[in-house]
Amino acid sequence: MTPESIIKKPITLTEKSNRLRVKGNQVIFEVARTANKVEIREAIQKLFNVKVEAVNTMLYRGKDRRMGRGYAKMQNWKKAVVTLKEGDNIDFFSEEGS
Q1: pLDDT of 20-33, one tens digit each?
Q2: What structural domains and CATH numbers belong to the chain?
Q3: CA 6 from chain center: how many Å?
Q4: Can you tell me whether residue 84 is helix, strand or coil?
Q5: Which residues touch 64 (CB under 8 Å, ≥6 apart)?
Q6: Which residue has the higher pLDDT, 65 or 92?
Q7: Taking the model in full, what pTM does it have?
C-alpha cells in the first residue's frame, strides 16, 4: 500500500483533536482499515517529514442510517492517534499556500 492510500484524511475539527494537538503533540487521522501501526507510522513519516513516537488505533463500527423507508449501514472505519516527537508538528491550516 502507498502512504497516500493508508492515510485517508486528518480529523482536525473536534475539541478532543485540538486538545490533543496542543497538549500532547498528537494528531488524529482516519486510516485504511487494513493498515497496521507500522504501516501508519511509516506513511506519516514519509508524507509529513516528521518523527513518530507512537501510534494508537481504534476501529469504529459504521452507524445505521435511514435511506428512504429502509436502513443502510455506513462502512466501518479506523482512527489512528499519532504521537509526534517533541518539536515536530503537522500544521494543516498554514497560510503558506494562500
Answers
A1: 988 989 999 999 99
A2: 3-84 (3.30.70.330)
A3: 10
A4: strand
A5: 71, 72, 73, 74
A6: 65
A7: 0.85
- What SS3 class is residue 67? strand
Q: Which residues contact 80 (CB under 8 A, 6 or more apart)?
A: 28, 29, 30, 31, 37, 40, 55, 56, 57, 58
* Residue 78 CB neighbours (<10 A): 17
Say how far residue 16 (Cα) sits from the centre of its chain: 13
CB atoms within 10 A of CB 1: 10
Q: How many CA atoms lie within 13 A of 3 on its CB side?
A: 9
CB contact set of 34 (below 8 Å; sequence gap of 6+): 1
Q: C-alpha grid cell for residue 82?
A: 499519532
Confidence tier at 98 by pLDDT (50, 70, 90): very low
